[in-house]
Design goal:
The complex is a heterodimer of chains A (about 170) and B (about 140). With about 170 residues, chain A is of the alpha+beta class. A 5-stranded antiparallel β-sheet of chain A has the order 1-3-4-5-2, with no helix packed on it. Helices cover about 25% and strands about 40% of the residues of chain B. Chain B is elongated and about 55 Å long. Chain B is an alpha+beta fold and about 140 residues long. In chain B, strands 1-3-4-5-2 form a 5-stranded antiparallel β-sheet. The chains are: A alpha+beta (about 170), B alpha+beta (about 140). Strand 2 of chain A pairs antiparallel with strand 2 of chain B.
Chain lengths: ~170, ~140
């Protein structure tokens, strides 16, 4: 391995770039209930209107982390790896595998049926660190979620890690 | 205020959050993929996952964030609000793994008339190994 940086000018140029994913349609009760079912969360606040009305939210809300997983606004065209070709902030080849580093969530207000959620995804930071199996590149994405009134719903600061692929392929 | 919730005055530093155990199954992983419209093949396609050097399809990490939020809300009930949460992943999870979310109260304070509680969180697998840590949550009352 040479001492050359893995962060090429092409990668460096990604920092600070932002992309907006405009919400297509309202969040429905169905998507909220199915997210709760997917997680296995049985809290009635997410599906039982009568129960939710009596709560301090006065109606159904979504589980807190649901908006951070709304991929429905991303284009429908799916790549060979199953990931939307519209997904943003991925490093160019030879980088291939992605490992999740971590997430920082901020919850500003509950998400309700009827909200139209628009997401901005800004590439906040890209840096290189040595790893056990070789050098790795860290990409920090800042995703901010807004409702139809332009109010912030939440923030998701997500760090993903790209191990530098080994020459014979296969990744880490 | 609901009678089904915890109150700020009843929370103490050192309190343990009732743990939440979940089985990681391929069905759960596919349900989560469908619910979130995330069709990354590494989460359900064994041949594809192996072609990318993984032993098997692995769970989407953000599902663990949902589990932590579920544990916290089961604990605080209707009175408290989850304001912030952060976590770092340590290990991938595969079908057959059984995880337990855990946490404890590390700080309690009042700031600008907001009553705030900070908790340390982590997730262990069936061998007691930490799969997610460190992690924390900020809750307001």
């Amino acid at each position: 391995m040479s001492e050359e940086s893995l962060i090429t000018p092409e990668i460096e140029a990604m920092v600070g770039k932002e992309k907006v994913y405009q919400g297509w349609e309202e969040i429905g009760r169905g998507i909220i209930r199915r997210f709760a079912l997917g997680v296995g969360d049985t809290n009635r606040l997410y599906w039982d209107e009568e129960y939710a009305k009596k709560s301090r939210y006065q109606g159904i809300i979504s589980p807190p982390t649901m908006i951070f997983e709304l991929n429905h606004n991303i284009g429908a065209e799916i790549g060979e790896d199953g990931i939307s070709i519209d997904a943003w902030g991925r490093l160019p080849p030879p980088f291939e595998n992605v490992i999740r580093g971590g997430n920082e969530y901020e919850f500003y207000q509950p998400v309700r049926p009827g909200d139209v959620v628009t997401t901005t995804n800004k590439i906040a930071q890209i840096y290189e660190r040595p790893g056990k199996a070789g050098p790795m590149v860290f990409v920090v994405n800042e995703l901010t979620y807004y409702n139809q009134r332009g109010e912030k719903l939440g923030l998701n600061r997500e760090t993903v890690i790209y191990p530098y692929p080994k020459r014979n392929g296969g990744g880490s | 205020m609901s009678e089904h919730g915890l109150f700020f005055k009843n929370i103490n530093v050192g309190d343990e959050i009732p743990p939440l155990t979940k089985d990681i199954t391929q069905v759960r992983m596919v349900m989560y993929s469908a619910a979130t419209w995330d069709f990354a093949r590494v989460h359900y396609d064994k041949d594809f996952a192996q072609s990318r050097g993984r032993p098997a399809p692995f769970a989407d990490g953000q599902m663990l964030g949902a589990f932590l939020a579920e544990m916290i809300i089961n604990w605080i009930g209707d009175n408290g609000t989850l304001k912030k949460m952060d976590f770092r992943f340590r290990k991938m999870l595969f079908p057959g793994d059984r995880i337990t979310c855990k946490g404890s109260v590390t700080e309690k304070r009042t700031e600008n008339e907001q009553k705030l509680v900070t908790c340390d969180l982590w997730i262990e697998d069936q061998n007691g190994e930490k799969v997610l840590a460190p992690a924390s949550a900020l809750i307001s009352f």
